[in-house]
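Late entry, evening session. Most of the bench is empty. Finally got around to the prediction I had been postponing all week. Sequence below, unchanged from the version circulated by S.P.
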Amino acid sequence: MKFSTIADKIQITAASSLSTHPGHDPEIAGVAAVDQATAGTLSYIEGDKFASFVATTQASALILPQNPTLQAQATERGLAWLSTADPRLAFARAIALFYSPYRPGPGIHPSAVVDPTAICGRDVSIGANAVIQAGARLGDGVCVHPNVVIYPEVQVGDRTVLHANCTLHERTQIGADCAIHSGAVIGAEGFGFVPTAEGWEKMEQSGIVVIEDGVRVGSNTTIDRPAVGTTRIGRDTKLDNLVHIAHGCQVGQGVAMAAQVGMAGGVIIGNRVILAGQVGIANQAKIGDGAIATAKAGIHGDIAPGEIVTGIPALPHRVFLKASAVYRRLPDMYKTLQRLQKHLP
């Protein structure tokens, strides 16, 4: 595919610019990381950290930030380039031109078990050994990979993909254009037990999980249903692998959670929140819109909208940095304290 064609397909904005030297519009056969690229591949530069690779990459074309210096370097080397305000987004669109995830064609594998009362839309694909129980409803274009188990009365929206070995428990509702990855368990009963003199008595979890449109659930992630009401994941939220969302949590729209985030019951997450890896959130905490928690933050209370928190327990990020600077000086401060104590009566 000609580079100019790729540039057109990834929707250059009015603020973007394109350079393909006269008579030189390279043929692009694939995409690659800038430090591993070879002739015939397209790569990209994002930020100053990777700027030096413009001088060394073997790629035939680059997607660049709007940086005249980098553009001049690429031109001097004879590289075709596209300059845009968001090189990473443009590169993501370029990858999609060369790669599509595996997706089987419509049809039901002979080994699949589909209850007669289940309703399947048009062009549904159901893989080997999948089990779809009574009253389940699959929308148009749904893809069910092998060994998926769908409990009774589950609803799955149009074009959603259920990857191998995931499980959807009873009455779970999944929106359109979602992806549920392998090993994920959606709608299992929450951790509800009442202490008594004789031991723990189970509180039945009669609620449901609702996942809105465009949500991505990573491998081995778990989202539990509550005793009553709904656990909800908002539209366009992205969950990494090994995330745990407990009973009754409410997660807003456009949220991103990295691997091993865990939250206790009743947590409320606002819109566009970012939770880095291994963040832990205690019962009933509320995280405001646009807040960010850095890796391993331990959140025990409410976080204001837009706030950035770090540490265990989580502190405002700037406070944490100041505290960390003091912490590194503790050995010297201790020595100073010992010297002062020697002069005390």
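Two things to note before I forget:
Residues 175 and 212 are 5 Å apart (CA to CA).
The domain at 107-320 is CATH 2.160.10.10 (UDP N-Acetylglucosamine Acyltransferase; domain 1).
Will write this up properly tomorrow.
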